[in-house]
């Protein structure tokens, strides 16, 4: 999704505005009440669209509630599929995440925080998020394995490398979401990511020492 919607054709801009209205409205309703008590009818009525239009954009209430997370990882998958993989592979995986974050539209961090808070207190969303994470991980490993066919590392090593990066990402998220609201802008998230990723070599050295 382009950071600047004005770069899109008119029809795509209209679709993007509808999508954004759905996400904003759904998250507001879910936050004010709770995920299970808000109906799909209430969401589409508030945005003044039909259910048919909703299902052209999202597959379910869970899908719209986790839209900020899914937008980020969709951008990540696109980037990792074309990014040069020469040099340090972990660095390429990390850089792809920074690039995906840069591509998010204005206000993404606010929506992401609302979505994450909602998921943390809603078991159905937690399960949906975990399933999505697993699907993304499998796709990333498949993409990397296909692009590195005949080279090392193998599938197991790629999965462990990705899991290490994701662990650092979750550490950065935890630090970011637990900070004061004034420190929850995108720049602060980037700083936490840099700090977490910078700790990975130290962790790798500790593993080597144990062996």
From TrEMBL:
Write down the Pfam families for this protein, in alphabetical order: TetR_N
Q: Does the keyword Aminoacyl-tRNA synthetase apply?
A: no
Which residues does UniProt assign to DNA binding? 39-58
- Give yes or no: UniProt keyword Flavoprotein: no
| Entry keyword set | DNA-binding, Transcription, Transcription regulation
For this protein, the record's InterPro entries field holds: Homeodomain-like_sf (IPR009057), HTH-type_TetR-like_transc_reg (IPR050109), HTH_TetR (IPR001647)
What region holds the HTH tetR-type domain?
16-76
User: What is this protein identified as?
Assistant: TetR family transcriptional regulator
Which species expresses this protein natively? Answer: Streptomyces luteireticuli
**Lineage in the entry?**
Bacteria, Bacillati, Actinomycetota, Actinomycetes, Kitasatosporales
């Amino acid at each position: 999704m382009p950071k600047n919607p004005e770069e899109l054709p008119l029809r795509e801009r209209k679709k993007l505005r509808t999508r954004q209205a759905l996400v904003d409205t759904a998250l507001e309703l879910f936050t004010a009440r709770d995920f299970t008590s808000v109906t799909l009818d209430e969401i589409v009525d508030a945005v003044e669209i039909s259910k048919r239009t909703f299902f052209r954009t999202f597959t379910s209430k869970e899908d719209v509630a986790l839209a900020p997370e899914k937008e980020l990882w969709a951008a990540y998958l696109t980037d990792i599929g074309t990014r040069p993989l020469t040099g340090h592979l972990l660095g390429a995986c990390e850089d792809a995440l920074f690039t995906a974050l840069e591509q998010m539209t204005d206000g993404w961090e606010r929506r992401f925080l609302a979505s994450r808070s909602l998921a943390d207190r809603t078991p159905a969303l937690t399960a949906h998020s975990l399933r999505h994470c697993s699907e993304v991980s499998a796709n990333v490993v498949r993409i990397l394995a296909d692009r590195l066919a005949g080279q090392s590392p193998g599938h197991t090593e790629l999965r462990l490398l990705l899991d290490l990066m994701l662990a650092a990402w979750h550490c950065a998220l935890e630090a970011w979401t637990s900070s004061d609201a004034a420190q929850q802008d995108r720049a602060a998230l980037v700083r936490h990511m840099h700090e977490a990723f910078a700790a990975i070599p130290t962790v790798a050295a500790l593993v080597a020492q144990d062996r």
